[in-house]
Design a protein that fits this description.
heterodimer, A: mainly alpha, B: alpha/beta, six-stranded mixed sheet, four-stranded antiparallel sheet, 10 helices, 13 strands, globular
Chain lengths: 267, 318
């Protein structure tokens, strides 16, 4: 594990140095990311112009969900989002090269990029989260603060798992990466709103199959110490770390199996 | 036990072909069809065949990149697909068309990353790197970003990357592709020396039969996924091209010479080409017999080139 972390740092370090050769385009991309995602939150604000609460959730509470999910998503995107381009890696034959090295392929793919340009998105989500916290009346304690950080970590881990599992589709169908987007970007969108507003079928899907409810909804219930409109078992609000760990484990297993089906390209 | 052992190695790919708007047809293509290989430590083997014969697919299975459909492989006692990372530490690979290096960074950074990826001890790494930099004359471009290197420089760098962890087996997939004559000669010289001094087992695929002629004692020819020849170069020549040609420049133009055991295949003024079988007539005999009937000013003996031999096998089969 420490070895993987060291290698990740070294490889990402090399990648960042390489990216720095194209500094200007990097700045432009980061600022566009910031601007585009800001428009995204305006949609939530517009919604609250017409209603005062969304399924008993007030605007600052929804903003809190939005911020938790957004920061977690941006973190996952920063570290692992480029796995979407696996098709490109396969098509160009660069995946062959990864298989020649005495290091796991997932680690190498993850370490092949650090999308600094996505920092813009994280910055925006962090602002929304900060604003939400300033508006909410939270009884802060050391535990609560820690819970916030753990929640963001779990959100990132859950999104990362979805990214990994989704990318595996590309081992079987080159260029089918977009299917995974429905779960990653879709998951981010879905987790920005309280799960309680969805119908029972959607709820089951997002809670159990793709564990989006554990990204922001359950942790938010715990941190805000508010009653669950769905009255689900109390322990669920503390279950995110376990769910995130399990999701990562499943995603990595899917990756291992998929690599065995890797077909390479001609010559 | 052999360094590389493959038994009944098969690789099949499923290919979908479009048939109409929605229907598609499923066909199975056998890229490698029951290949058997046995290569000893320290051998230098050429692996040749026309495009699409299954060369690269075999190499990819031997290096753990592809999982075989069926059959057994052992490389240095390991099963490549299953023990991929362990094997990776013991082999070096150069895919001529795929770079292992970090494109936007100075070359020396790639070598530095290599040390961490392969967990090579720093002193040993520095020592080997120093040696390779000197042998391959890479000093002048160590600090140049890889993308700015010439093809010849890059190939030397790729070889270095493949050898820095002191592998026992080296796989080279078209290592001289696109190189100029000088760079080719340099790479060949280097590989031959490596094989001799370190006893490194080298397997190379190539379209350039000069590579084979200069380097490899043993040749494997693959076509349609099957090994159709496995043996020495000389034996291949004896079997498929048993003739040599004696080219003589006579003092004066003459009608085609009639000499025992030879046959004139071409006449050009005073120069005549006489073909003779290497197994029945020695070069000395042929020369003596020609000298007995005509006055010779100059002569050369031509060996059949491997290229024409292999081309004939590709076209006619074995």
């Amino acid at each position: 594990m420490t070895d993987a972390w060291r290698l990740w740092r070294l490889m990402v370090g090399a990648q960042v140095r390489a990216q720095m050769q194209y500094r200007t385009s990097l700045m432009i991309e980061a600022s566009t990311g910031f601007a585009v995602t800001f428009l995204d939150f305006i949609a939530v604000l517009v919604l609250f112009q017409h209603i005062h609460a969304l399924g008993t959730w007030s605007l600052p509470q929804v903003a809190f969900l939005y911020g938790l999910s957004g920061v977690g998503f941006a973190l996952a995107d920063l570290v692992i989002g480029h796995i979407e381009d696996l098709s490109e890696l396969i098509r160009s034959g660069r995946f062959d090269v990864l298989l020649l090295r005495p290091v796991g392929t997932l680690l190498q793919v993850v370490a092949s990029d650090l999308a600094i340009r996505r920092l813009g998105k994280m910055f925006q989500a962090a602002i929304v989260l900060g604003w939400a916290i300033s508006q909410l009346d939270i009884a802060w304690s050391l535990t609560r603060v820690a819970m916030c950080f753990v929640a963001i970590g779990c959100a990132a881990a859950i999104f990362a798992s979805i990214w990994i599992a989704g990318a595996c589709i590309q081992f079987f169908a080159l260029g089918a990466g977009e299917i995974a987007n429905a779960f990653t970007y879709g998951g981010n969108f879905a987790s920005q709103y309280p799960v309680s507003i969805y119908g029972p079928w959607v709820r089951r899907f997002v809670a159990y199959l793709v564990p989006i409810a554990f990204v922001a909804y359950f942790p938010a219930l715990a941190i805000l110490d508010r009653p669950d409109p769905l009255a689900l078992p109390h322990w669920l609000r503390y279950a995110s770390p376990i769910v995130a760990g399990a999701a990562l484990g499943v995603a990595m297993a899917i990756w291992q199996v998929s690599v065995r089906h890797y077909r390479s390209t001609g010559s | 036990m052999s360094m590389i052992e493959a038994v009944d190695l098969v690789k099949q790919f499923t290919v979908y072909r479009k048939r109409g708007a929605l229907r598609r047809e499923r066909t199975i293509v056998t890229a490698v069809d029951a290949v058997n290989l046995s290569i000893e430590a320290g051998e230098m083997v050429g692996y040749v065949g026309p495009n699409g014969a299954g060369k690269s697919t075999t190499i990819k299975m031997l290096t753990g990149v592809l999982t075989p459909t069926s059959g057994d492989i052992r490389v240095d006692g390991l099963v490549p697909a299953r023990q991929r990372t362990e094997l990776a530490r013991r082999i070096g690979v150069v895919f001529g068309q795929r770079s292992q290096l970090w494109w936007d960074l100075p070359l020396v950074d790639s070598f530095d990353l290599h040390r961490h990826l392969y967990r090579v001890d720093a002193t040993a790494h520095a020592h080997r790197l120093g040696e390779l930099v000197e042998l391959l004359d890479m000093g002048p471009f160590l600090r140049t970003p890889v993308r700015q290197l010439s093809l010849g420089q890059r190939m030397r760098a790729e070889l270095t990357f493949a050898l820095l962890h002191d592998p026992e087996v080296v796989f080279l997939d078209e290592p001289t592709i696109g190189l100029d004559v000088v760079s080719k000669a340099r790479v060949r010289e280097f590989l031959a020396a490596r094989n001799q001094t370190y006893g490194t087992t080298i397997i190379l695929t190539t379209h350039d039969l000069d590579d084979i002629e200069r380097l490899c004692g043993r040749l494997l020819i693959i076509d349609h996924g099957r090994v159709i020849y496995d043996g020495g170069l000389d034996a291949l020549r004896d079997r498929y091209e048993p003739h040599r040609t004696l080219v003589v420049d006579l003092v004066a133009a003459a009608p085609p010479l009639e000499v025992l055991g030879t046959e004139v295949i071409k006449v050009e003024g005073p120069r005549q080409w006489l073909r003779f079988r290497r197994d029945t007539t020695t070069a000395a005999e042929a020369i003596a017999r020609v000298a007995a009937v005509a006055e010779i000013r100059d002569l050369t003996i031509e060996e059949p080139d491997i290229e024409s031999v292999v081309a004939r096998i590709y076209v006619d089969g074995i």
